Automatic annotation (TrEMBL):
It comes from Tianweitania sediminis. It comes from the Bacteria. Its EC number is 4.2.1.47. GO terms for biological process: 'de novo' GDP-L-fucose biosynthetic process. Gene3D superfamilies: NAD(P)-binding Rossmann-like Domain, UDP-galactose 4-epimerase, domain 1. HAMAP family: GDP_Man_dehydratase. It catalyses: GDP-alpha-D-mannose = GDP-4-dehydro-alpha-D-rhamnose + H2O. Keywords: Lyase, NADP, Nodulation. SUPFAM superfamilies: NAD(P)-binding Rossmann-fold domains (SSF51735). This is GDP-mannose 4,6-dehydratase.
Length: 327
């Protein structure tokens, strides 16, 4: 009998790659997704990967506990991956309450559904390097103190500790992955890497002339979503649940990431870059650099795709998308 997984946030970047990964492993994959007025459910990322017909979509929302309980009751999943969130840090200052409800309290809803309807299911929580915020140690590990710097990061910290608490209180096999930034051609357009690769493609094709950015001195430890969803699954295969940092161990500025993208398209960054003060954040996370040693020692995980390879893949995908649209 194939294993069953329930993935919240299946329509997002990681949800799509995780679904593909689990299907390849022979899982029956169920995905929680919400409807909108413009589309039944946004299946575009699953379609991009060609797996939309192989995933079983369940109508639901992280805010609706009764629907979550029924979903877990009906599916009886072996593994539950909680990826759904209001995940854009910048928006979390505009929508702090919604962010708290979905990204924070939503975790309680999913954990309650597991506790009530399938307490022996293994649970994964999508925690974030944003929880470190104002960094006081050069490299962040599972033991580095947290200092969240946005409503999003505060909400993620709540979800992280709740996951630890449900493990300790109820013996649930609950693990929290503290994932550093990870990107791909399926990254949302509002995040800086994809904003840049999309702009580079548009500039190359003569559709746009400038790229407006905020703080280009911020440093991030960027990996590829494909590598990171593998780590989520590996965590849940361990006998004992635990928390793990997933990162590449290399940090780069936003400027460096931009240079890789522009160079790949044969363009000069400084001819097109405009710094826009409106894009700076009320409080910034200046630098993130993760140490994935614990995950490597426990289950042999390491990143395989470099920043350069990933950004070039994203530029090529955006060029292709725009060319297809123009046809
Ligand atoms: P995305 O923003 O691409 O996906 C978020 C998903 O959550 C979407 O499927 C979205 O659905 C869904 N969602 C949002 N609100 C609700 C709700 N109320 N009920 C049900 N579903 C909802 O994020 P990523 O794939 O990049 O990230 C996955 C998770 O990992 C998130 O929790 C994120 O915070 C976390 N994370 C991400 C990192 C990264 O660098 N990518 C790093 C560390 C953590 P819809 O399509 O309808 O909007
Ligand atoms: P982040 O990702 O906030 O780290 O959260 P994002 O790509 O939005 O920002 C990275 C850095 O780039 C700077 N920046 C800009 N960012 C955006 N989006 N747009 C701009 O124009 C711009 N100019 C400069 C930002 O200030 C920041 O320093 C992501 C999300 O996926 C979270 O859900 C996840 O938890 C963390 O990564 C780890």
């Amino acid at each position: 009998m194939s294993k069953k997984a329930l993935v919240t946030g299946i329509t997002g970047q990681d949800g799509a790659y995780l679904a593909q990964f689990l299907l390849d492993k022979g899982y029956e994959v169920h995905g929680l997704a919400r409807r909108s007025s413009s589309s039944d459910v946004n299946l575009s990322r699953l379609e991009w990967l060609g797996i939309e017909k192989r995933v079983r979509i369940v109508d639901g929302n992280l805010l609706d506990l009764s629907a979550l309980i029924r979903t877990v009751q009906d599916i009886q999943p072996d593994e539950v991956y909680n990826l759904a969130a209001q995940s854009f840090v910048h928006s979390s200052w505009q929508q702090p309450i919604l962010t708290g409800q979905v990204t924070g309290l939503g975790v309680t809803n999913v954990l309650e559904a597991v506790r009530i309807a399938k307490p022996d299911a293994r649970f994964y929580q999508a925690s974030s390097s944003e929880m470190y915020g104002r960094i006081r140690e050069p490299m962040q590990t599972e033991l580095t103190p947290f200092y969240p710097r946005s409503p999003y990061a505060v909400a993620k910290l709540y979800g992280h500790w709740l996951t630890v608490n449900y493990r300790e209180s109820f013996g649930i096999h609950a693990s929290s992955g503290i994932l550093f930034n990870h990107e791909s051609p399926l990254r949302g357009i509002e995040f800086v890497t994809r904003k840049v690769t999309d702009a580079v493609a548009r500039i190359k094709l003569g559709l746009q002339s400038e790229l407006r950015l905020g703080n280009i001195d911020a440093k991030r430890d960027w990996g590829h979503s494909k590598d990171y969803v593998r780590a989520m699954w590996m965590m849940l295969q361990q006998d004992v649940p635990d928390d793990y940092v997933i990162a590449t161990g290399r940090t780069s500025t936003v400027r460096t990431m931009c240079e890789i993208a522009f160079e790949h398209a044969g363009l000069e960054l400084d001819k097109h870059l405009v710094i826009d003060p409106n894009l700076f954040r009320p409080a910034e996370v200046d630098v993130l650099l993760g140490d994935p040693a614990k995950a490597k020692a426990a289950f042999g995980w390491e990143a395989t795709i470099s920043l350069e390879e990933m950004i070039r893949e994203m530029v090529d995908a955006d060029l292709q998308r725009l060319k297809n649209k123009a046809r």
